[in-house]
TrEMBL record:
<comment type="subunit">
    <text>Homodimer.</text>
</comment>
<feature type="binding site">
    <location>
        <position position="137"/>
    </location>
    <ligand>
        <name>Zn(2+) 1</name>
    </ligand>
</feature>
<feature type="active site" description="Proton acceptor">
    <location>
        <position position="63"/>
    </location>
</feature>
<feature type="binding site">
    <location>
        <position position="208"/>
    </location>
    <ligand>
        <name>Zn(2+) 1</name>
    </ligand>
</feature>
<feature type="region of interest" description="Disordered">
    <location>
        <begin position="188"/>
        <end position="208"/>
    </location>
</feature>
<keyword id="KW-0540">Nuclease</keyword>
<protein>
    <recommendedName>
        <fullName>Ribonuclease Z</fullName>
        <ecNumber>3.1.26.11</ecNumber>
    </recommendedName>
</protein>
<dbReference type="Pfam" id="PF12706">
    <property type="entry name" value="Lactamase_B_2"/>
</dbReference>
<feature type="binding site">
    <location>
        <position position="64"/>
    </location>
    <ligand>
        <name>Zn(2+) 2</name>
    </ligand>
</feature>
<dbReference type="InterPro" id="IPR001279">
    <property type="entry name" value="Metallo-B-lactamas"/>
</dbReference>
<feature type="binding site">
    <location>
        <position position="61"/>
    </location>
    <ligand>
        <name>Zn(2+) 1</name>
    </ligand>
</feature>
<dbReference type="Pfam" id="PF23023">
    <property type="entry name" value="Anti-Pycsar_Apyc1"/>
</dbReference>
<dbReference type="GO" id="GO:0042802">
    <property type="term" value="F:identical protein binding"/>
</dbReference>
<feature type="binding site">
    <location>
        <position position="208"/>
    </location>
    <ligand>
        <name>Zn(2+) 2</name>
    </ligand>
</feature>
<keyword id="KW-0255">Endonuclease</keyword>
<keyword id="KW-0819">tRNA processing</keyword>
<feature type="domain" description="Metallo-beta-lactamase">
    <location>
        <begin position="18"/>
        <end position="244"/>
    </location>
</feature>
Amino acid sequence: MQVTFLGTGGAVPTTRRNTSALMVRREGERLLFDCGEGTQRQMMRFGTGFSVSHVFLSHLHGDHVLGLPGLCQTLDFNDREEALAIHTPPGTKSAVENLVGVTGARPGYPIRVHEVQPGGIALREEEYEVRAFETDHRTRSVGYALVEDDRKGRFDRERAEELGVPAGPLFSELHEGNAVELDDGTVVDPEQVVGPPRPGRKIVYTGDTRPTGATVEAADDADLLVHEASFGEDRSERAGKTGHSTARQAADLATRADAKRLALTHVSSRYAGESDRLAAEAREVFDDAFLPDDGDGIEIPYPDG
Ligand SMILES: [Zn+2]
Ligand SMILES: [Zn+2]
């Protein structure tokens, strides 16, 4: 699973940082979290590809959604046929439909807008789900957690052979969790040859928010927490007033959630050229905090390698 930071800036873009967008690629599928103005050009610049299947919006402030009409139009020019699903906070469906349809042009592919429920499941796929959780901003907002299912335990081939199981279809039966009967009548149970289920990965994206308990819960043991860090400690009062977080607050939260890594994003344009300071403030509290630049990508390995 690969995460690309397409836009790491706050409400106002700078030459270095575009407005919010995050791309997650998993097994050939592309999920986009927020879509600030210019996101489609960031996708081109950083080579993430365009075939997004789902867009997850954290809230309807312009710096998170104004890239949608342009992206949807380009997908149409590319002769896209498959549906695009847009997931959005409660009560915002018609605003998103208006935004996407603002030019009056109707794309040749279906666009489906779904309102998500905080605490509910926004998307369920075969091997993972995306859950929505409540955040605390100045408007209806949610964060998202991409949570993979547990994977099957490791299959102990040597042990299976010792027990007399012939290599072939019986191996897969056992790995699928079914007992098998050998020619001599012996029954082999899956527990004898398959290890315990192995955890999947978890990525959490907050969008704009003050620090919240719901985020701590959602980010429990996350492999990557992408938390907004609009401000440094020098503007902590402003962060609270405007529904944002400081880098240090994000780091506190990552510590409480026992997350493995913390990416700080949505950096205010006030910190242009000195964003290292925010990363340093976070690292005083949480070692594995970093502040990505636009275009940075990281691979998220399985916890057990
Ligand atoms: Zn924002
Ligand atoms: Zn906002």
